[in-house]
Amino acid sequence: MPKLGMEFMKELEERMLGKEKRLDDFLRGQRDVVRKCSAAVKEAQLGNYEKADALLDEAERGMKELERPEFEHRMFGMRSEYAEALLFRTMMKDGKILSPEESGVDDASYLGGLLDCMGELKRVLFDRLRRGGKEEAEKTFALMEEIWDAVGGMHFSRALMPEFRRKQDVGRAVLEDARGKLIR
User: Fold this and answer.
1) Does the structure show a pLDDT above 80 at 4?
2) Quick one: average pLDDT of 154-177?
3) Same structural domain, 110 and 130
4) 117 and 53 in one domain?
5) Maximum distance among all Cα pairs of the chain, rounded to whole angstroms
6) 49 and 127: one domain?
7) pLDDT digits over 111-158, tens only?
8) What is the CATH number of the domain that holds 149?
9) Is residue 18 pLDDT above 70, yes or no?
10) Which of 37, 72, 97 finishes a domain?
11) C-alpha to C-alpha distance for 114 and 106, rounded to whole angstroms
């Protein structure tokens, strides 16, 4: 049987191995960014805003280093985590909600991060209740309601935002759980 002229396969394999290495590096960097975002949220919960800011700066630099067209489809989760950490830190320190433009993330990541803030705000609310700060807890709940009122009624195609409906469902459950704790 004659050979089919597959000499190019070695080069193809090398290209694919190179892409696989770049993907491994990307995923490792992505995990590092997400860890920094998580740590920034914890620091903001503790009121350590300088540490939270430093971690957010590191996370932002890490995200910029990872931006590559070939992995754009894998950026949403990391950008949402960053948006959540940045939005939460700003809510806790400055008492305001950044706009998408102020946050510097795309609209989809912003909405995902904003909905994810509901869980962090619930933790703050519970902590405030535990310490006897019902008035502060009610302010936190009002912020949660403001977020829900803004995004709870939005609807998008799953093709545009596959996780949005699930995040809304979680946000609604978190809000109702927090409401129940406040009423007690």
Assistant:
1) no
2) 93
3) yes
4) no
5) 84
6) no
7) 999 999 999 999 999 999 999 999 999 999 999 999 999 999 999 998
8) 1.20.58.2140
9) yes
10) 97
11) 12
pTM of the model: 0.89
How many domains does the chain fold into? 2
- Determine the length of the chain: 184
| 154: Cβ contacts below 8 Å, ≥ 6 apart | 111, 164, 168
Range of the domain at 57: 8-97
Q: In the chain, what is the straight-line distance between the N-terminal and C-terminal CA atoms, in Å?
A: 82
Question: Does 1 reside within a domain?
Answer: no
